[in-house]
């Protein structure tokens, strides 16, 4: 049987946390639920302490200095403190569905498989959150991929290098990974990224580890959409959006260089990074439309504008 450590970073989630934790405790596969409280300004810490007092599987940690360090650092602390053979993640305002580990029970019988991912759905918790989400993502009911995949096909798909469109990033809520694989490849969340650290982690994970799709046509977890979702606040291709994307792709480019990954992958990452880098440097100028095009399709830099990738 699987023995799973569920890691939940907690920041100002008092309203949702109890449902989130109980959704994980319903499974016999769950060995422990690790809460990492990140200097919330609401009563999240009190809620955490109450949950710990009621169930011995719930364990609470804070950062040594008791200060706010962000979701990436909180997940890293949770990984370091975990004792399960498998690691899963859950956002404090989200929850698991009863089929969360259905695919994993069978797939992990194959020792070659290091990680399994599935689909998540959405639940609108506020009208304002619904409007913001739909204005940015239309009415996408599932965050998932377009077809079953495993191994390097997953990594290539996330970079847009597969013949068929692989789809969006799968969500951390639907990922289960062997703890031994995280340790073997020394995989951590980039603590300098306050957003997109999850996508950064997933791409690196997909390169180093053998991942396989599980249930991708129905949700295994639910993401709560409300007024305070950070990802819905940023207007696409705005200066703030471009800056955050630049930091994300720069992180991946630094990683690709240090790990000496094959040039076809490194080039794709570099061109994405350079697109956002140039858009930041030019800002609103006569070149602005050029770089918006380049952000959408980095190959434009190589074709129309004769920009050469430096290996």
Automatic annotation (TrEMBL):
PANTHER family: GLYCOSYLTRANSFERASE, GLYCOSYLTRANSFERASE EPSH-RELATED
Keywords per UniProt: Glycosyltransferase, Transferase
Pfam families: Glycos_transf_2
Residues in Glycosyltransferase 2-like domain copies: 5-133
Protein name as catalogued: Glycosyltransferase family 2 protein
InterPro entries tied to this protein: Glyco_trans_2-like, Nucleotide-diphossugar_trans
Regions that span the bilayer: none
Keyword Disulfide bond appears in the UniProt entry: no
Record flagged with keyword Glycosyltransferase: yes
Source superkingdom: Bacteria
């Amino acid at each position: 049987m699987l023995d799973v450590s569920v890691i939940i970073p907690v920041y100002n989630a008092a309203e949702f946390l109890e449902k989130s934790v109980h959704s994980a405790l319903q499974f016999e596969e769950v060995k422990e639920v690790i809460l990492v409280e990140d200097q919330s300004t609401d009563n999240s810490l009190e809620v955490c302490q109450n949950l710990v007092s009621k169930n011995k599987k719930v364990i609470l940690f804070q950062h040594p200095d008791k200060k706010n360090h962000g979701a990436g650092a909180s997940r890293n602390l949770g990984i370091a403190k975990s004792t399960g053979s498998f690691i899963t993640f859950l956002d404090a305002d989200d929850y698991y569905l009863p089929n969360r580990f259905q695919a994993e029970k069978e797939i992990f019988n194959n020792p070659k498989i290091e990680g399994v991912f599935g689909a998540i759905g959405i639940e609108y918790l506020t009208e304002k959150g619904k409007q913001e989400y739909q204005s940015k993502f239309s009415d996408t009911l599932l965050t998932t991929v377009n077809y079953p995949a495993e191994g390097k096909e997953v990594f290539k798909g996330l970079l847009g290098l597969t013949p068929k469109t692989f789809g969006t990033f799968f969500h951390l809520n639907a990922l289960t990974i062997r703890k031994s694989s995280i340790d073997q490849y020394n995989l951590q969340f980039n603590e300098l990224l306050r957003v997109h650290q999850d996508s950064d982690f997933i791409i690196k994970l997909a390169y180093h580890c053998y991942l396989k799709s599980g249930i991708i046509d129905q949700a295994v977890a639910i993401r709560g959409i409300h007024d305070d979702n950070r990802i819905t606040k940023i207007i696409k291709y705005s200066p703030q959006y471009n800056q955050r994307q630049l930091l994300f792709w720069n992180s991946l480019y630094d990683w690709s260089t240090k790990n000496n990954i094959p040039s076809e992958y490194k080039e794709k990452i570099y061109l994405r990074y350079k697109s956002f880098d140039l858009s930041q440097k030019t800002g609103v100028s006569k070149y602005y439309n050029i770089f918006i095009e380049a952000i959408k399709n980095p190959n434009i830099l190589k074709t129309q504008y004769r920009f050469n990738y430096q290996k």
